[in-house]
Design goal:
There is one protein chain. With 238 residues, this protein is mainly beta. It has 2 domains: 7-100, Immunoglobulin-like; 117-237, Mannose-Binding Protein A, Chain A. Helices cover 6% and strands 43% of the residues. It has helices at 146-155, 169-173; strands at residues 7-16, 23-29, 35-38, 41-45, 51-55, 59-68, 71-74, 78-81, 86-92, 96-100, 117-120, 123-126, 131-134, 143-144, 176-177, 184-185, 195-198, 209-215, 219-225, 230-231, 235-237. It is globular. It starts with 6 loop residues before the first strand and ends with a strand. The relative contact order is 0.15.
Length: 238
């Protein structure tokens, strides 16, 4: 059933990278699972964390698509010129409005950025949120349907730990680095590679389907039959 009112707030903060590289656009969204299309191409799916895109300077078509139950609700396309310091897009029942205002630039830290992901034996540790990712030699050939993937993680014993689980699609998004022009898997991983991975996320509208995430790009498909076979990686911790 279509919800009467969906409001998605997107805050795009543009900082100049020079004419060659375009503008870095950091996107915040309060609706998990909303897709952002730029010039007709799917560029990002929104989760809890902000996404970063690189857009060339000039005018772009921006569209937001939000899955609601078994239907898709999408906004009209709008033209956004990537030059303004702050652009706020409001998505409300097929309509986007755009406003902007200048802000003071933020000072960047001069300290060297600490590594968030560290390879340790058969796992990669996310030191920021105390999470461990499976990263052993079985992963390149590990392909299962959704039920098999979920059971595999629940039964996994790795590095003397038996509390592994299949990650949700938002969690899978955390190991994709969106800070550069081309999104990519963070470089700490050895055995997790590019491709579609199962997530534990199942939407109530269709319990026979689940979400998959394409690691390296960050694209999420939310309506995939559970009988399909894709790659698997397990996590433990938060």
């Amino acid at each position: 059933m279509m919800q009467n009112k969906i409001v998605t707030m997107l805050l795009l903060w543009c900082t100049g990278l020079g004419a060659l590289y375009g503008e870095k656009v950091r996107i915040h969204c309060d609706k998990v699972g909303a897709f952002v299309y730029v010039d007709g191409l799917k560029k990002s799916v929104m989760g809890e964390k902000p996404r970063v895109l690189i857009l060339s300077r000039g005018t772009h078509n921006i569209k937001v698509v939000q899955p609601i139950d078994e239907e898709w609700q999408e906004s009209e396309s709008i033209h956004m010129t990537v030059t303004k310091p702050v652009t706020k897009l409001t998505f409300q029942q097929f309509h986007i409005e755009m406003t902007s205002k200048p802000i003071e630039s933020k000072k960047h830290s001069k300290h060297k950025k600490e590594r968030r992901f560290i390879k340790q034996g058969n796992v990669v540790k996310d030191v920021k949120i105390e999470r461990q990712w499976q990263d052993n030699a079985v992963l390149p050939t590990l392909v299962k349907n959704w039920d098999e993937a979920k059971k595999y993680c629940e039964m996994l014993v790795l590095d003397k730990h038996d509390d592994w689980r299949l990650p949700g699609y938002e969690v899978l998004q955390t190991i994709i680095d969106h800070s550069e022009a081309n999104a990519a898997l963070v470089d700490a991983f050895v055995h997790v590679s590019e491709g579609f991975y199962w997530s534990s996320t199942v939407f109530p509208a269709n319990p026979k389907q689940a979400a998959r995430v394409y690691l390296d790009l960050g694209c999420t498909d939310s309506s995939i039959d559970k009988s399909e076979k894709y790659k698997v990686v397990c996590i433990r911790g938060k």
